[in-house]
Structure formats: C-alpha cells, structure tokens
Design goal:
The complex is a heterotrimer. By secondary structure, chain A is of the alpha/beta class. Helices cover 40% and strands 12% of the residues of chain A. In chain A, strands 1-2-3-4-5-6-7-8 form an eight-stranded parallel sheet. In chain A, β3, α5 and β4 form a beta-alpha-beta unit. Chain B is built from two helices and ten strands. By secondary structure, chain B is mainly beta. In chain B, β6 and β7 form a beta hairpin. Chain B starts with a helix and ends with a strand. The chains are: A alpha/beta, B mainly beta, C alpha/beta.
C-alpha cells in the first residue's frame, strides 16, 4: 500500500469552477464584480515548479484534469490513496466572509467532482484562518464526511499558528481526529522571513523551510500539543532535511529559557516525535547516500515521515517519488503505517 | 534539616570538612570554599544548607553565580506553579536549572546533574569534642558550623 | 549518572590540556559603554544633545529594552558584571581577567551592539553614532588592548554614509572587517547594498554579519512570535535567509574577493540550507541565470560561520557529521562574551577534535579570513 499524502488537484478559476458551489449572494458578487483569479503568488501556474512538463495538461491549470490526475498521480505513481490539498487561495483574501464562502465552495467542489468520482481520493478541509470561529464552523460542517481527513492551512499566514486565538480550531480538529496539514504557501501578510522581501521566487521558495520551522516552534512553545494531546500536525512540502538541526536548536534554547514556557514539560524534539509529521517531497537531500542515512538516524524516529509526491509540482523525474537512500524499513512505514496512523479517518468507511 | 543520616557514615572513606559558620552565609546567599582541591559552593535557603560543586556540568560556569529561583511548573499555558522558592538554580550562563538539594538538572534529571555533597550542621560544642577534620577553620563552642562530606 | 559527569569531565580535562597550549582567536566579543558619555569625546555636541533628548529611533515598541525579554539582565552572563561597577563588557581590566587571559585569547573581534547603530531610522544620527562607535572601539579598546580588533560598524540602510565610513576607517589600517545587520530594510543581496560591498572589497575587508537589529519585519514568515525562545531561534533563520539572498542575487560573483562571515548564528542550519539551495536552484535556473554554479560550492568557498551558539545534538557525536558537511575550514570559534549563551573555549565542543581541527577552528581559520598574519 502506498498512501500519497500530498497532491494538488487544480482549480480552473472562481467563475469557471466554483460558481455552482457559491450561494446566490456570492455568485452575484463574483460575476458582477469580476472576483476571480485567486491563484497563489506562491505557485504561479506557469512556472516550472508548479507542474512537471509531462504532467502539464494541454489546456487548463496544472492538476485540473481529472482523467490525467487519475492516470498520472494515482495509476502512474502507484497510489492506493491520495490526499488532495487544494492551493487555490481562498485563505489569503482579507474579507473573512468571502474567504469562508470560497473555502466552503472549494471543499464542496472537491467532494462532488473528485472524491465522489474516485474512491482512492481523500481531501483536506480548506479553512479561513483569518476568522478562527468560521474555520471551526467549516470543520464541524464537514466532520461527518470521512473522506475529509485533515485541515489545511498555509505555512505563512497572518499570525503564527500556536497563538491562542487559533486554539478552537485545534480543539475541533482534535475532536474529529483531523490532523492539521501545514502546507507551503503564503498569505503574503509579512515578508517570508525577518530579512524582508526577496527579489526572486527561488529565494521565496527556499524560505518556506524556515517558515515551517517557525510554525513548529510556535505550536510547541505556545503549548498546543499539551492542550490538545490528540492533535497531530503535518508539515507539507517543507524540504525535511532541516529537521534534526532544528530539533537540536529548539531543545537547546528550551533548556536555557524554559522558565518562559514552563508548560512545555519535555524537550521540543520529543514533542515533535509524537505530534509532528513531514511529507517527503521535496526532500532536500545531501548528495551522498550515506549522508541521507545519517540524516534519517539523526531524526531519531521512523514515525515522522509520510510519503508524498506533491503532484503535479516538479520535485522529481520518473515514476518513483520515494527519495533515494531511504532505508527499506522506513519506506514501508512512510508509505503505509505512518499515514494511516496520522490520518486516522483515512480508511474509515465513508 | 541537614543530613543527620550521613553523620552515621563517619568512619567510612568520607571525610567531613568544616567550611563555614551558619551565621556567615545569609539566607538566599552562598559561600564558595575550596575543599580537598575542589571548589564548592554552599547555599543557605529556607533554613537549610546545600553544597554543590561550583561548576555547571554544561560548560563549567560557576554555580555560585546562578540565580536562585522557585521551582517552576505549569499544567496549562499561562499558569505558573511555584514551589520551593529559592531552591532552584538557573545557571549564570545558559540558564540550565538545577535542584540545589540534589544537583539534578530540571530538563534531564537522569543524565545531567551537578555534583552534590552531603551537608551537616553541627554545634561548635560537638565539634570541639569529636574527631572531625576542622583543618584551618577555627571553631568556637558558641557557633554552629556547616560541614561537607567529601 | 556519575558516568556522564565523569566522562564529560575527562573529555573536558583532555580538551583543557590541548586548549591550554592553543592561543584562541575569538570572533565575537561585545564591549559595552559604561555610560553614554563614553561616546562624547567622539560625538559632536549636536548629537550628544540628540542622544540625550530624542535618543535612538528604532522600529520596536520600547525605548530601552526589547519586547522579547532576555534570559538574564542585559542579555549577559550573571558573573560578567564588573565588581567595580558598570554593565557586563564595559570594563577592560575585568574583561582581561575574566576572559582574555584565562581563555588565552590571541585576538578578539569586537562587535558593538550598544545603541543599535545598524537599525537607526534617523540616518544622520545613525551616521554620527557609527563614526563615534568606530572611533571609541579603536581608542578605548583596541589601542589599550591590542589583542582586541575593532570592526567598522555601519548602518547598512544608509548606504552612502556607510561607504564613506568604510573608507574613513579602512584608511587607518586598524579595522578587521565591515559589520552590518542581517535585519536590514531589504535582504542583503539586493542591489541597493552593492556599493557597500564594493567598498568592503576595495578595502580588502571581510563582511561580518552579526545577528540582531530591528529591520521592521516580523521575525518569521508567519508573523510575530510570542516568546524569546522563538525569537532567539529566529536568528538562525535570518542567517539562512541572508545566505540565500546573497548567493541567489549573485553577490559573491560580483565581488569575487569579498569574504562573508556570519556571526552568532551558529552553524547547524548550514548543511540543510545548502542542500535546499542546490536542489531548488535546479528547478529555478532560468529565473536566476546569473547563478551559474550550485550554491553550495559558493558557500564552501566564500562563507564562514562563527561557532557560537554551538549546536548540541541529542547524540553529541552527531556534531561530527555536521562539521564534515560544512567543512572544518568554515568554522571560526566565537565566545559571544559576555552574553548569557556564551561558549567556553574549553567546554563548548563535546566531541573530540584532532589537533589539526582544533588549530583551525580556534585559530587558523580566523587568522586567514581576517588576515591576521
């Protein structure tokens, strides 16, 4: 069994795709005000990373063709299940009610036109984190549909994910056994890092790894995992290889300034091993295979990694998305056991 | 109170050293002494005396310069549960926390600790009688003294 | 338990023996002002008045402290307060007694954080301050104590004044590097800073980038953290981002003789960012055609990293892998004296080092980078 924890069905546009899933008010707003084009700056559809050339449809956005996705992501890469993470940027709008309405529409669209047509597909619930209470509403609305297996947020939002005002979202997610999928991508509220706004998309993309780390620190140090012991968080499309050095530094700082956060009652690295998972594409690998093995050992747990292709993003060539040099025992775990343990609803009857 | 139990170990290899009068170390304060070639810091807190090697096991900072703080725990973000005020040391350099009583570190109590020494408090009268090693420490019967077992 | 202590003690003892014989070059020492007035001999009356009234103007809510309270008063080791008074780092005699002499320091590179010259919004004031601080370093620290080497501290966002100051100070022949902040208005690779790099290169001085500063941006891409635990860690992220910016913008190619020293960011993060830059450069090559080589090659030739705060892996031996991945030639020992997260030259490294490695990390690498002869 191979469970692909991160694929991206593409959405053609608000008018082209989501109109049937909006209520009368928002349909009128969209059509009369020309509200459309919420493709994220993080992933312009035409840039090479956004779609591997042999996966790019002749017409339409990357990942938007159902038949192609089936043939390529599911059959071609050998997925028993695949989790759909829609990156159309409803979460990034400022108007919370627009964001909430569009998130609802995205979720209804993915359910009706993808999950209903292909039993191997699952999805993350897209939520408007700019209004946490509305995010909770959306989680509650879809909690009964077992095909939704996670809650999706972007790694670069307005405030760090550990903050108290997000806790009702985690309470709802924990209650319904939904991990939080924190995916690369930005609401562009602040610069991608403390140094300011980069010139190049390459710099921006590289900085996503640091954003993932900052979010993990926030979640851990604000005490989210103590408060919600059943909660898991999945860092998606993060690059992974930063993990061991990050764990060491997090432990080091905590040992010295624990008094600031005494509710963090064990080393951050231990908390991560229990609560944090990472998808394996891209994997920013050391050049030598022996070093890949050393890095995996340094992570200190075979439970943290989750297989993913990141389809249709261009992270690898060929039809094997498993990073080179991963030990066989890890590969088995990350393709099957770890995803099943993390996405507890995945194999539950619909 | 200080370690009466250890006093029965007199006669084993441990040697007792008089290091201070009780009155010379103010509550909340400490005194650094050199005993048998080791630099040791003696703390006075909450009516008791504790002794640790004056060297943090992390990178060697002098524990005599540590901040003496409460034992701090929390079961809920934003709540701060204090006890044993003044009995925890936050090392002067990296802030690692050690229990004055046992030398155990807070963050890794099984594997990281400062060396702790058994401490006793004896009256000058008793010391004047018994065969304790007073070294160069002048003893009078009116005072009470802090002793360390090494 | 006793085993752990004794093993550490034994390792420490062996290290001390080897260390005793080695003169150390410390690439990060922080002298501080005893009082504002210490600067006055180097500061015009107009700016003395300004300092006493309007003071510094920084993008942070408090006039005299950080919104992320530190681990200890003034960010310092609790034992570093000079007995005769003044803040940690303000007394040369005490610095000699507590740090320079016992650690057997051959040279120490000065890094001045007082008054945060690098982040002053009032650019004329910032220029006056930087001149004063650079003069103060030389007159009050380096001249009486030749082991201490001053750095040309400049406010990078006032580029013209920075260039003038680099030229002024470099002409004296006494300064060992140009110092800027990684929290500037824009990423340091951006073109507006290139004249500054030209000046540093022309002066044959390395560019030292020391953590800290208020650049007006949130410390993370997800917003503002709540805790010092997070903010302290974000220094490593800032450094990773600046490494990326400088390389992706092509600064090392444009200034082929310029060396870059990253100070007080540690080094554990370096391998993964190098791998990440290499991997994704492949995919974005036509966005950045001026980046002609894998970024990691440039890291290995032109960038150095001071060792403090030293990485502390859960299994101490893993530090060996990190050093191999970065290359032992890239590491420059630093203490960060008198700050709380100070690294002691004898005890910081918890793995055995060969004599050759020890000589490089604690002396030879810095000697070469800073041309100390």
């Amino acid at each position: 069994m191979r469970i692909d924890c991160d694929i991206h069905p593409g959405l053609e546009g608000t008018r082209a795709t989501l109109l049937p899933y909006l209520d009368a008010h928002w349909q009128e707003q969209v059509t009369s005000r020309g509200i459309d084009g919420l493709d994220l700056t993080s992933y312009p559809t035409t840039m090479p990373l956004s779609c591997r050339p042999d996966w790019r449809p002749e017409r339409g956005k990357p990942g938007s063709n159902f038949a192609l996705l089936k043939a390529q992501a599911l059959d071609g890469l050998g997925a028993s299940y695949a989790i759909c993470n829609v990156l159309y940027g409803a979460q990034a709008a400022f108007d919370p009610y627009l964001a909430a309405a569009f998130c609802r529409a995205i979720n209804d669209w993915i359910a009706a036109e993808w999950l209903a047509r292909e039993p191997r597909l699952r999805a993350s619930i897209v939520v408007p984190m700019q209004a946490p209470d509305l995010a909770v509403e959306e989680i509650e609305r879809l909690a009964g549909d077992r095909r939704f297996v996670a809650v999706l947020v972007l790694v670069q939002g307005e405030t760090l994910l550990g903050r108290r005002h997000f806790w009702p979202v985690y309470a709802a997610a924990e209650r319904h056994r939904l991990p939080i999928a924190v995916h690369s991508g930005s609401q562009y509220r602040t610069a991608p890092s403390s140094i300011g706004w980069p010139s190049y998309r390459l710099e921006y993309y590289i900085a996503e790894a640091q954003a993932h780390q900052a979010q993990l620190l926030s979640l851990i140090l604000e005490g989210v995992f103590g408060k919600f012991p059943g909660l898991k968080v999945v860092m998606m499309e993060s690059g992974v290889s930063w993990l061991p050095a990050f764990m060491w530094r997090a432990n080091k700082t905590w040992k010295g300034v624990r008094v600031e956060v005494p509710w963090v009652d064990r080393p951050p690295a231990d908390i991560m091993r229990d609560h944090v998972r990472l998808t394996t594409q891209p994997f920013d690998a050391p050049p030598a295979q022996a070093d890949v093995e050393r890095l995996i050992e340094q992570i200190g747990s075979e439970r943290m990694l989750l297989y993913a292709s990141d389809y249709p993003h261009w992270q690898f060539d060929g039809d094997c998305a498993i990073p080179q040099g991963f030990p066989a025992s890890l590969v088995t775990r990350m393709c099957r056991d770890n995803p099943l343990e993390t996405f507890a609803r995945l194999e539950a009857p619909a | 109170m200080a370690t009466r139990a250890q006093s029965t170990r007199w006669g084993e290899a441990m040697v007792r050293h008089v290091v201070a009068t009780t009155s010379e170390i103010a509550p909340g304060g400490n005194k650094v002494v050199t005993v048998a070639g080791r630099e040791i810091v003696v703390f006075h807190v909450n009516g008791e005396f504790f002794a640790l090697r004056n060297r943090c096991p992390h990178e060697g900072a002098p524990l005599a310069k540590a901040a003496c703080v409460a034992h701090l725990k929390s079961d809920e973000p934003g709540r701060f549960q204090r006890s044993r005020v003044g009995e925890m040391l936050r090392c002067a350099w990296h802030g690692w926390e050690f229990d004055m009583r046992t030398g155990q570190s807070f963050c890794d109590p099984l594997r990281v600790r400062a060396r702790a020494y058994a401490v006793a408090v004896e009256a000058g009268e008793t010391l004047a009688k018994g065969p304790y090693v007073a070294e160069t420490f002048p003893v009078t019967v009116e005072e009470r003294y802090v002793l360390i077992d090494i | 338990m006793a085993d752990v202590l004794e093993r550490a003690d034994a390792q420490g003892a062996a290290a001390v023996t080897a260390q005793d014989k080695l003169k150390v070059i410390d690439c990060d020492i922080h002298p501080s002002l005893h009082a504002r007035a210490d600067l006055y001999p180097f500061l015009a009356k107009r700016w003395q008045h300004h300092l006493e009234t309007y003071g510094g103007h920084l993008r942070t809510p408090f006039t005299s402290t950080t919104p992320y309270p530190r681990s200890s008063p003034l960010l310092a080791r609790r034992d570093a307060w000079p007995p005769s008074g003044g803040p940690p780092g303000s007394n040369l005699a005490f610095m000699r007694q507590q740090h320079l002499d016992p650690i057997n320091i051959e040279f120490g590179m000065l890094q001045v954080l007082d008054l945060l010259v690098v982040s002053q919004q009032n650019q004329e004031f910032g220029s006056a301050l930087q001149r004063a601080i650079n003069d103060w370093q030389l007159e009050c620290w380096s001249r009486p104590e030749p082991r201490l080497k001053p750095s040309i501290l400049v406010s990078q966002d006032h580029v013209e004044a920075a260039v003038a100051e680099i030229e002024r100070c470099a002409a004296t022949g006494n300064y060992v590097q140009v110092n800027i902040s990684p929290r500037a208005n824009e990423p340091l690779g951006r073109r507006r800073y290139w004249p500054l790099y030209a000046a540093a290169q022309a002066a044959n001085l390395p560019l030292g980038i020391h953590v800290g500063g208020y650049g007006g941006h949130a410390p993370t891409g997800g917003g503002w953290p709540s805790y010092y635990n997070e903010e302290h860690h974000s220094n490593a992220h800032s450094m990773a981002a600046q490494l990326t910016s400088l390389i992706i913008e092509g600064v090392p190619e444009r200034f082929p003789r310029l060396k870059f020293v990253f100070i007080e960011g540690g080094f554990g993060w370096v391998p993964a960012i190098s791998w990440r830059m290499d991997k994704h450069w492949q995919r974005f090559r036509d966005e950045v055609p001026h980046v002609r080589r894998p970024p990691s090659e440039t890291v290995r030739e032109r960038f150095w990293f001071t060792t403090q705060p030293i990485e502390e892996p859960e299994h101490a031996g893993d530090l060996r892998a990190v050093i191999e991945w970065i290359g032992v030639d890239r590491l420059l020992f630093s203490s960060d004296y008198p700050h709380w997260d100070y690294d002691d030259a004898h005890s910081a490294f918890k793995i055995p080092l060969t004599d050759a490695e020890r000589r490089k990390i604690f002396n030879g690498n810095a000697r070469a980078v800073y041309a100390l002869g």
